[in-house]
Amino acid sequence: MATIREVAALAGVSVATVSRLINRNGYVNKETEFKINKAIEELNYQPSSIARGLAGKRMDVVALVLPDINNPFFPELARAVEDICLSRGYTLILCNSDNDREKELNYIKSLSRNSVSGFIFATDSLSQEDLQELRQSGTPIVVLDRSGNADNCSIIRADSRKGAMMAVQHLLDKGRRKIAHIYGPQSIVTARERLEGYEQIAQQYDWYSPSLLIPGNFRLESGIEAVELLLERHPDVDGIFAGNDMMAIGALKGLIRRGIRVPEQIALCGFDGIGMTRMTEPELTTIAQPIAEMGKMAAEILIGKIESNGGENRFYELDVHLIERSST
Amino acid sequence: MATIREVAALAGVSVATVSRLINRNGYVNKETEFKINKAIEELNYQPSSIARGLAGKRMDVVALVLPDINNPFFPELARAVEDICLSRGYTLILCNSDNDREKELNYIKSLSRNSVSGFIFATDSLSQEDLQELRQSGTPIVVLDRSGNADNCSIIRADSRKGAMMAVQHLLDKGRRKIAHIYGPQSIVTARERLEGYEQIAQQYDWYSPSLLIPGNFRLESGIEAVELLLERHPDVDGIFAGNDMMAIGALKGLIRRGIRVPEQIALCGFDGIGMTRMTEPELTTIAQPIAEMGKMAAEILIGKIESNGGENRFYELDVHLIERSST
DNA sequence: AAATCATATGGTACCGGTTACATATCCCTA
DNA sequence: TAGGGATATGTAACCGGTACCATATGATTT
């Protein structure tokens, strides 16, 4: 690979002039520009982003850290982030962390310090201190679905509690009289909020019992298992609110396998609004987060921070909405 | 962020000694080591991978370029690659390219030249020349599912043609007498091979007709649409071989929606062996590629190349196998 | 006519590491 | 006892860019 000095030599100018042309700052004569471009062409010169990074320039790469690449919610989110990044001239790289703090710290270590110019975390496992450290190095951060206030970085989230309440209310409106909840890992703030939202409504009714709460891990398999457990405990349950769509899809499979008709015998509602919910039979009712909007927003805010060298940290809460389909 | 020179100053040694300690090459006295470690601790020093990259060291990052992050096949593959990379001390970053050559070139541009020390392409849209250029820069490459011979880079693939033949034969064994094929984009070599495999068997029978070939794009929706078209053309079809699992899942939904019983009226077989095929009702019969094995192999071969500075380019073909489930 | 300014280009220190080479002990062996 | 090898550390060039400062010229202003 050619270097800027080789280009300069071939074009008969100094490296400074070549650099000025490439970055389009400073003056460069038309003829000189032509000569340099010819040399660049000839040598097939590509500026090294490494060297550029070392020299203090921002790199046009941003990283999106995802907790579970197998949950389609995150690829959908990633697509939205990607679209914005691309249109703004940034390259997006994806990092899968399994919600594992060690892995995330590892990504930060490998990528920070000018390797990437900004991070979007769609995960919840890093402590405030972990992020604080990164912030101090000047790297802008946007976080999705994190709890707490925004003193460190900008936060974007959907209103999970409200969404959960909408889900339960919807099932009640459909005449359900015993509604269970499959909840996600309580280390994840959105899972906690959805559980809280469920309880806020459910506890007002006399059919409520803590045994209607079934643990899951946000993955499809756990939806199947949860249904097994639930039907054992409460054969008369007639409504299920799953903490996310993947578990809802799993639950649906579990129900069909048992020969239970959805929604006639048991109505089912998920949460997230991933595309996959339209692909089951029956199609799933779900509480939709504005996934694309969240991703776009995250990317735009991050890029804004990158290009303005900081900017204020805000907390953005987006609305969710009910998508009623044939599973209720 | 502290620099190596600050650490050296605080520890009262030269930068060379610090560098030697960090990289564990060359001699460092025990006492000196202790002093340096104390300084590193105190300043919270992290070596800049950027500077390290510029100075000619390999970076411990490899990139995996995926054509469609929404197809669970690729996240599954990514997980396998990730496991190996992690255990070998490498960080994996994911790049979603939509099978778009421009996007892929963009990733190469942003990440090559020491930014990452190796690439795995699970895509098919780059020309030999595109890769050749990257190779010349010394970056090792491993390619999944590419056609042609391995003069440029190592290639790993599953035997799609054979798999397709197995699928059709299986449907025949199940007594099917009119088997359709939903094929994927013919720009993708695996899609072509699966179509060829289908034809190789199907053309031997008198029920064969080119109108049994329905185009799809490897995405779930196209499976649904394909079924619509197929049933219009051939209401008497009794077997479907879908070019990948996502289209098979779509086809299944299309069939169920039409009230067609699977497998009684129409038997259905997919290709890939993604986990999601166990999540439908009925569960899907599929031709399984050794996804995890392919990912692991790709990672191991790549890392081997990185650490041995090159190595031979080989062509690895892996076997597929039939997983018979209730959709046939 | 002198001062100011826009245009155009070159020289080079610097970013933060790595590493080849020089230097200096100390110990062991022929 | 001179010389060779293992141990230990420092100096400085280098990787490939960026950007500050200096320099030079022609045009415009006062």
From TrEMBL, chains A, B:
One GO MF term on file is: DNA-binding transcription factor activity
UniProt name for this protein: LacI family transcriptional regulator
Q: Does the keyword Transcription apply?
A: yes
Keyword tags: DNA-binding, Repressor, Transcription, Transcription regulation
PANTHER family reported for this sequence: LACI-RELATED TRANSCRIPTIONAL REPRESSOR (PTHR30146), RIBOSE OPERON REPRESSOR (PTHR30146:SF95)
Record InterPro entries: HTH_LacI, Lambda_DNA-bd_dom_sf, Peripla_BP/Lac1_sug-bd_dom, Peripla_BP_I
- UniProt organism field: Paenibacillus taihuensis
Record Gene3D superfamilies = 3.40.50.2300, lambda repressor-like DNA-binding domains
Pfam families xrefs:
LacI (PF00356), Peripla_BP_1 (PF00532)
Point out the coiled-coil segments of this chain: none
Q: Which PROSITE patterns match?
A: HTH_LACI_1 (PS00356), HTH_LACI_2 (PS50932)
